[in-house]
Amino acid sequence: MLPGVSTGDREQALDVFRQSLRTSQLVSTFNNASSPLDDPENQEYIRDLIRYILEGRTIVASLNIVILFVLFLLTISHWSERVVDRRKWATIERDIASSAHNAVPETAEDSENAVSSSSSSTLEGSISPQPIHLKSIHLNYGNTDAERQPLLGSRPRPRPHGGVFSFLRSLLMYQPAPTPVINRALPSNGTTLVVTGYFGLNIFAHLYKLPFEARHFFAFADRAGFVFIVNLPLLYLLAAKNQPLKLLTGHSYEALNIYHRRVGEWMCFEALVHFAGMVTWRLCLEPEWLATESIWHYFTHPLVLEGIGAFAAYELLYFTSLGSFRQRWYELFLASHVVLQIAALVFVWFHFFTSRPYVLAALAIFISDRTIWRIGMKSATVAADVETLADGETVLLSASWDIPHANTKRALWRVFGQNILHGWQPADHVFISVPSLGGSNALQAHPFTIASAAPGLGGIATRARLDLLIRAYSGFTSELLRHACPSSTVSVRMDGPYGSQDPLNALRASKTAVLIAGGSGIAVVFPLVWDLAMTHSGKRKIHLMWVIHCSSQQSWVSAEQLGELRRAGVSITIPPPTVEVGRPNIASYITDITSTSVADVGVVVSGPDGLNRTVRNTCAREVRSGIDIDLRVEKFGW
């Protein structure tokens, strides 16, 4: 029946075809004396269809090979950049050491003359509980909209204009305006390019060597299902909190979350194409000699019911993962995400036998992340104090403990398996559960960035103090706020720490460090600036701007801590609250710094989408004009 094909391959092809057409009459007649396959025309049709199915499986399976190759290139790029950054950092540290004996302490008079006035304020703290003295710096609050300035426009500056490389970097760094009507924030052009490349690769795998004929439409629908299956391990890998991609690329799971969402959306689209394609094939295009006895028989067949179950589970996963749903019903999102994905994997396992290796890989990633690492190894329970801060909407959760003695013989274990009790790195975050809140709160885990200075991992620190700033909205956070009024002590289960040192490494490798926080984004920025100022300051110029919505938010960071940063040489700028004077001119703040910088500049921003976009696009313009800026955007929110 299949000329030129070995017996083993023939049996495999027939097995694939039997499984693909389990709902048709043909399966029951394969072994009969009289079969539709006795017709030579039908034999040729079946041969072609089997060939298209098998070719599709081979083509789509190669997707993972391409993705692994891209990952290999990204790994080389990341570690090459790490080597360069370490050399820059070492050079800065050597400069600091060589000039330490010649340093002249800054006097109070020098400090007072260092900045001049307008309508913003620079904090100059003191370790004593005296009020912080305010002084102003040049920061305009005009009506200039930095977002409307052309990305590629140039300003006169005493340095050469950027070349082609600067143009490409700025273009990739630029972030377009939110989409109209739905007002959805778009990622940077660089991220969009990566996502578009991923979509293009999948579309190519789906359509390559497909016959665009109605009678072979089954092959199109079948391949959509296989594209879905092949992407399963990647989807779960990008979602895992403990995964090797952080080590390979420098990006932890929260930075990769946007790719996880895009992969999930693409898979849901392919599932829809597969489902609609198979129904269309059965109702309109299937040859009569292949058709099932009735529509009822088709839709009640176990194979189809399993497929419908998998399709429904993954589509529900998509809708419950939308940003609007997560913001309103975060607790329901968490619960449904776990239940639905387990149910979906079970349905896929029984629906499509070829999917089983991919389902096993996805299940192994899920179980190892959730059970072995997060619950068994990275979880710890501590006693914490919770109190309501001055704004009445924010909870400060604080805990302290003695750091356990580190076992130097288990370095690799410390990197991957150590829990929060052994310390953390700047800008890391933890997932917390508070069983005493009762109900479903005992099972929920919510992420919060550690706002206090980091003791480090495996360092010389013997005592750790952890602070979390928790803004109350609804659900878990509102329950915690009620429980904290005015203060109380609770038992907290912490899963973590998680995070990446990529932003800190970028700042360490720059002679000018600019950190910008919006509101609770200070929880990300403060540990970074503290680490830079207290352990790696010297010749590095450090600038911190904190944009606050109301004056009560200043209580989130103590005057003593700000005073220590100021004395360590950090230029701290806290403009008047935006509720009083509007938003500060962030673009002017950045350009004033970069215009006087003689070396590369590291920029880290953490805040709302609008602030992040303003900083990103201002940096893009500066890069276009030839300035070397290493930008990191730490977007908070899930």
Automatic annotation (TrEMBL):
It is a multi-pass membrane protein. The chain crosses the membrane at residues 59-79, 217-239, 295-317, 329-350. GO terms for molecular function: ferric-chelate reductase activity. Residues 113-128 have a biased composition (Low complexity). It comes from the Eukaryota. One of its GO terms (cellular component) is plasma membrane. Residues 101-128 are annotated as: Disordered. It is found in: Membrane. Residues 353-504 form the FAD-binding FR-type domain. Keywords: Electron transport, Glycoprotein, Ion transport, Membrane, Oxidoreductase, Transmembrane, Transmembrane helix, Transport. InterPro entries: FAD-bd_8, FAD-bd_FR_type, Fe3_Rdtase_TM_dom, Fe_red_NAD-bd_6, Ferric/Cupric_Reductase, FNR_nucleotide-bd. GO terms for biological process: copper ion import; intracellular iron ion homeostasis; iron ion transport. Belongs to the ferric reductase (FRE) family. PANTHER family: FERRIC REDUCTASE TRANSMEMBRANE COMPONENT 3-RELATED, FERRIC/CUPRIC REDUCTASE TRANSMEMBRANE COMPONENT. This is FAD-binding FR-type domain-containing protein. It comes from Xylaria arbuscula. The lineage of its organism: Eukaryota, Fungi, Dikarya, Ascomycota, Pezizomycotina.
